[in-house]
Every structure is written in C-alpha cells, then in structure tokens.
C-alpha cells in the first residue's frame, strides 16, 4: 500500500519502555489459544481480567531499532487515516467522531480491560476506547494460519479494531453488553450476536478501505486480496478445522471465512456505513 504524509498523535509506543515482562504460568498453549480466540475480537475483559497466577517481571529498557521505529510511523499513519475517514463519515451522517487511542506494546501492558498479554493479538478495549497492538502476532498469523501478511494486512486489522470503536461510539457495544448481562438468551443465541458484532467490524473495515482509498489512493494491486486472506484465515470454521478437525457452527463467535470475506467486501464495495446491519440478517 502507498504511504501518506498524515501522522496521528494518538499513538503511544510502550515497546522498549521496560514495562513489559515475561509471562509466568499459563504456558505457550494458553497464549496460542488466547490468540486464536481474541484475534480481531471485541471486548477481551473476561480473559484479560482473569489472568490468574500469571505475573510479569520488569524488563530492561532498550532503544527501538530502525524497523520498530518504521512500524511506529506506519501505525501513526494508519491511525491518522482512520481518524480522517471516520470523522468525515460521522459528519456526513450528522454525528461527531471521537478518535480512539492506539497503544503499541510487547510482552505485557495494562489496559482498561485488564492486563494485556503478548500473543493475544490486537484488540479493542471499550473501557478506555483504545486499540492495543502487539505487532509480533502478525508473524503467528502468517506462520500458523497461512495468511498473506503485508502492510495492508496490518491496516485491515487496525481498521477492524477501529470498527469496534465505531460500534462503541454508536452504542452497539453497549447494547450487546446489555443483552449479555440480561442472561435471557442461550449460549448459541449470544454466539450469533457475537458473530454479528464481529462481521459488522469487518464491514466497517471495508468501508474505511473504500473511503480512504477514494481520498488518498492508498491501495495497490494485491492489497484487498491480503485483507481477504487475513479475514479468511481467522474464520471460525478455518480455526476449528485446524484445532479440532471438525466444524461446529453453533459455537462460532466471529463468523466463517466466507462470512468475513462477504462483509468486508460489502463494506468495500458500497463504502456506505448504512448498509452494515449484520444483526438483522444473522438473528432472524
């Protein structure tokens, strides 16, 4: 993808700060399971807050290398493009957009939803309206899930998490939480609500890609294919086939590979936020 000259000041880089730590307890298997469950997820507070015996020890401060500094600049650029695009979309629909913060971290860090751990994957925390990014997860995405990882893959993932921020600003997140707390629905029904929530975030990522490219011409050949590759790689059916050898649709929480592709492309093709009612279709 093409870089722009825009940079956001809402990015905090905690890498190399010495505030991280090595995970004690849980083990690699736990981390991989957590990464699978929460990659491209919504509110991870239930897992983050229940880290149990896990603890962290401070690490020595270090200087970031040239590649890490480039990653920071790239994230600052993508954050700025999200801010500009969503500010315009909200204004066009008579609303005011409030930007999310973005935190880059390694190993562990504190979030408004609890302790964020390395390899859990990027996530959005509604409590502090912040996207948390452990960039090392993209290696896992490529090596373990076979996704095509490019700069636009990172941009798509961030756009998905920003989609969860949009849901918080529009009140969707709060409505879903209210349904969950009410306890009136079965696990299968709440799973369908979760799928609708995640697919809507994919739709918003597609809307962002379309509108940002119309303004800045950021897309290059292969970029949309890279986004689709990432979306399909973390579809529930693909993950279940890899982890347990069979698919149980009632346990889906993020949507199938085909659904994730469909809703991202619907957002990208239309560029219209008003066409993203995933709940009506999935909850009938």
TrEMBL record:
The keyword Translocase does not apply. GO terms for cellular component: membrane. It is a single-pass membrane protein. Its main location: membrane. Keywords: Hydrolase, Membrane, Metalloprotease, Protease, Transmembrane, Transmembrane helix. InterPro entries: Uncharacterised_pept_Zn_put (IPR007343). Coiled coil: none annotated. It is found in: Membrane. The chain crosses the membrane at residues 21-41. It comes from the Bacteria. GO terms for molecular function: metallopeptidase activity. One of its GO terms (biological process) is proteolysis. PANTHER family: INNER MEMBRANE PROTEIN, PUTATIVE MEMBRANE PROTEIN YPFJ. This is Putative metalloprotease. It comes from Chryseobacterium populi. The lineage of its organism: Bacteria, Pseudomonadati, Bacteroidota, Flavobacteriia, Flavobacteriales.
């Amino acid at each position: 993808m093409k870089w722009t000259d825009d940079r956001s000041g809402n990015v905090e880089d905690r890498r190399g700060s010495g505030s991280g730590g090595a995970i004690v307890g849980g083990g690699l298997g736990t981390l991989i399971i957590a990464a699978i469950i929460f990659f491209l997820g919504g509110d991870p507070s239930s897992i983050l807050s229940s880290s149990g015996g896990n603890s962290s020890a401070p690490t020595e401060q270090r200087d970031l290398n040239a590649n890490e500094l480039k990653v920071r600049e790239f994230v600052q650029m993508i954050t700025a493009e999200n801010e500009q695009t969503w500010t315009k979309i909200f204004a066009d629909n008579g609303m005011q957009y409030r930007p999310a913060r973005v935190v880059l971290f390694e190993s562990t860090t504190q979030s408004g939803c609890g302790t964020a751990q390395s390899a859990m994957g990027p996530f959005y925390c509604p409590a502090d309206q912040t996207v948390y990014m452990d960039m090392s997860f993209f290696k896992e995405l490529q090596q373990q899930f076979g996704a095509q990882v490019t700069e636009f893959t990172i941009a798509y993932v961030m756009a998905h998490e920003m989609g969860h921020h949009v849901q918080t600003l529009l009140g969707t997140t709060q409505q879903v939480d209210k349904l969950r707390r009410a306890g009136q629905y079965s696990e299968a029904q709440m799973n369908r609500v979760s799928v609708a929530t995640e697919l809507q975030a994919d739709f918003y990522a597609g809307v962002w890609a379309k509108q940002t490219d119309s303004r800045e011409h950021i897309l290059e050949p292969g970029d949309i294919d890279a986004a689709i590759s990432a979306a399909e790689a973390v579809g529930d059916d693909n993950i279940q086939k890899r982890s347990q050898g069979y698919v149980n649709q009632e346990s889906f929480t993020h949507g199938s590979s085909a659904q994730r592709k469909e809703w991202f492309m619907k957002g990208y093709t239309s560029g219209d936020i008003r066409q993203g009612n995933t709940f009506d279709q999935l909850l009938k």
